[in-house]
Amino acid sequence: MKNMFIALLALSCASGPLAAQSGSALRDPTRPLGWQEASDNILRGEENLRLELVWRKGEKQFAMISGTQLAVGGEIDGFRLVKIGDNEVTIENTQGRQVLRLTPVIERSDPKQEKKNETPGN
Description:
Mean pLDDT: 76
Low-confidence stretches: 39-46
Order of helices and strands: HHEEEEEEEH
Helix content: 25-40%
Oligomer: single chain
Number of strands: 7
Largest sheet: 4 strands, antiparallel
């Protein structure tokens, strides 16, 4: 009995690495059917790029993307800046185009202070 237990233990330990090498990875049961992970080439930098500022200096337009100042034609993380708008820019790489938009500044207010400023009858 003891020998059989040791043999089964040795067999189960040896089969773990073989199953991992065969490419038969376990599927996440919470992942939607048909879902595929995106290639690193497509998303590299795309999620991290953030439009921070757009401005003009004379006739030239500039954009600050993730701390880097760019004009049209400039490049960052494999993306080329192709268009600058008032509140957005268009970047592209070999995989396609993407629009980065300025996010609005959220101003916090104190509801207690607002109630003090309200006049009766309004």
